Amino acid sequence: MTEAASPYTRPRPRWRALPAEDPSLATVNEARLQLHWAAQLPSAASRALLPKRDDESHTNLGWLPGLGGLVTRALTRHAGSRVALDVGEFSLRVLGPESATLARLELDGQTLASALAWLRDALAGETRRAVPALALADYDMPAAPPQTGAPLARPSDQHLSILRDLYANSHAVLTEISRRRAGASPVRCWPHHFDIATLISLDGGDPERARSIGVGMSPGDTSYDAPYFYVSPWPYPKADAELPELFAGDWHREGFTAAVLRYRSIVSDPEPGAQPVRVRDFLSAAIAAAEDLLT
To answer: The pTM is what?
Structure first.
């Protein structure tokens, strides 16, 4: 019998070099907001067509490397089709078997309402099954023009490329952790906060009480206006707890507790190949620090 290949020996996906911070990076936040709102569209299909889960995990998204986009789970009520947000092209796709594109919509100039209507019709047309009305989630989202009915606006190719590469890189390094660590969940993008992450569960039982470590990347939020990687222990340490020294990055303690590696630290070393090494070293050391805090 031939032994199955170990996941530890799989070749690592190529890291896509991220540009050093410059004035143009500030406007990546505008691109991030457009994509964040656009990501609510495939999640709306999941919300309507997948069995509900209490933790809303049925609405989260995977990363599809071949497409360079975020994709739903198979919509089992609709012939296993999936809906994807193509990050690099800023388009919505309905995917069939082997990820073949069955229908595609350029999102530039579309309102959220018109895109939802198109998606419902496209799913119904391709699967020949009735599709219920699609609606966005009612959780809080960062303010942006699409929220009030303005059309989605396609970001520049440069900014779409940065964000696509950021998610591709993050998916690769987080998948390494997910495969290596016992108790780690698959890597998923959560549409509410738009972060991509894996959760390392240290205990069973009630997730609100059980110890865990969240490991992920946020493209930016109200805490930081640029992308960052994070490692967050749960339950959070007490406010007066002494936190261990980090190999790289800083501790964040306002609103949540996490070791954080900011974008400027990721790209600070101009040496070729330095970026993925810095990220992997940070994540490894920060996970060890989080384990120490929890034990």
So the answer is: 0.93
Let me know the angle formed at the C-alpha of 220 by 209 and 213, rounded to the nearest 5 degrees: 25
Cis peptide before 235 (omega within 30 of 0): yes
Q: Residue 127 has which token pair?
A: 């699967």
Q: Where are the domains of the chain?
A: 25-148, 157-294
pLDDT block averages, 10 residues each, the chain of length 295: 43 86 79 97 95 93 97 80 96 92 97 97 81 93 96 96 97 98 97 97 87 97 94 95 93 96 94 94 97 94
At residue 10, the pLDDT reads 58
Alpha-helix runs per DSSP H in 18-132:
28-38, 40-49, 112-127
The answer to whether 255 and 275 are in contact (CB under 8 A) is no
How would you classify the pairing of strands 69-71 and 82-86? antiparallel
Location of structure tokens 């032994």:
3
Alpha helix ranges (H) inside 50-156: 112-127
In the three-class reduction of DSSP (H, G, I as helix; E, B as strand; rest coil), residue 283 is classed as: helix
* Euclidean distance between CA atoms 77 and 139, whole angstroms: 25
Reference 91, options 103, 80, 99, 78; nearest CA is: 103
Rg of the chain, C-alpha, whole Å: 19
Distance, CA of 38 to CA of 90 (rounded, Å):
8
Determine the longest span between alpha carbons in the chain, in angstroms. Answer: 61
Cite the DSSP H helix spans in 223-273.
263-266
